[in-house]
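U., I forgot to send this yesterday:
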Amino acid sequence: MGASAVIGLALAALVAGCGSEPEQLPPACGAGPDEVTAALAKAPGAVALTDGTLLSDCVAKATDDADLQMVGLALTPAADRLATHGDERSALRLGFLVGAVRRGASTSNGVSLELVRRMESRVRYDDPALLEAAERGARAGEDHG
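Result:
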């Protein structure tokens, strides 16, 4: 193989690698649990943070430990708050959050699976109506969260 062919292959590999940079985590993803809770008020409809970012995008774009910790610090307290209310509307919102986190994690390299587990563990209802509301919300979150 000639020198020009080797250089051509090296340049092709460099160009291919440039397009694979992960997207930056949108700032709204770390805005905190109040922002997440406010966005979830629209569930099971179109839920987005104030800059239009989907909750699932926050999870999908959290590609390192620091990003994932920032997202977790916004989502986990919001889930905890919703879990303590014990009404169908809150259960639906919590389910939506769980579904959105599942959706975002489905495109990741596995780094966000612990966050999925944490969100799912917040759904602890004995009341069948609350469980059904959470399941409806989860389906909506997985669909468009």
